[in-house]
Backbone:
């Protein structure tokens, strides 16, 4: 697992932001509009039965919306608290068979090749901007 100072700082920041993330972003007018645009695009690309990888999933909103359309997903985030909130939402959704949430930094995705194949992957809302070094 990546343990650089930058990655640890990113994880700490995102953990701290997790509790208020949906209030500060997802549930705002701009956040809803941006998320709606992303989901419309993802819904055009991914179909029921597809399996996708989502990087930097935050509190799981996109993964759960796609799962509601039958898209199976493995959704990862560096922040344990973000994943904890996503799992709580999943437990209330009735979609447990379609989504798996994991604490995983994008820098550490190389071992996920054993979890494939995936029909696609995505990351949104600047998650890739936080990545210190992409795996080879």
Residues:
């Amino acid at each position: 697992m990546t343990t650089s100072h930058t990655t640890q700082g990113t994880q700490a920041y995102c953990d701290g932001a997790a509790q208020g993330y949906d209030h500060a972003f997802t549930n705002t007018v701009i956040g809803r509009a941006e998320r709606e645009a992303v989901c419309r695009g993802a819904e055009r690309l991914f179909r029921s039965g597809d399996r996708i990888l989502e990087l930097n999933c935050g509190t799981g909103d996109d993964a759960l919306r796609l799962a509601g359309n039958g898209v199976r997903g493995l959704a990862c985030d560096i922040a344990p608290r973000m994943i904890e909130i996503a799992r709580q939402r999943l437990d209330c959704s009735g979609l447990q068979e379609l989504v798996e949430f994991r604490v995983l930094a994008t820098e550490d995705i190389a071992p996920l090749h054993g979890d494939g194949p995936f029909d696609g992957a995505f990351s949104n809302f600047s998650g890739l901007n936080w990545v210190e070094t992409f795996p080879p």
